Amino acid sequence: MIGSLTLSGGENGRPWQLACGAVVDAGQLCVGLPPHEAVARVSSLFSLCGTAHAIAATRALGLSEMDAARQDGMRLEIMRDHALALLLEWPRWLGLPPARDLLARLTHLKAHDPAACAGLRRELTGTSADIAGFDLPGLGQWLESAREPHAPVLVTLLAWLRERLCADWGRVSLPPLQAGDIEAAFGAGHDAPPTPRDAGILPDHMDIPVIRALIGVEGVSLFVRLMARVVDLLACLHPTSQALFSRTAALSPHLPGIGVARAARGIVAHRAVVRQGRVAQYAILSPTFWHVAPGGLLPRIAAGLPVDGPRRPWLARLMLSCVNPCVPVAVEEG
Question: Confidence band (pLDDT; 50, 70, 90) for 242?
Answer without folding.
Answer: low
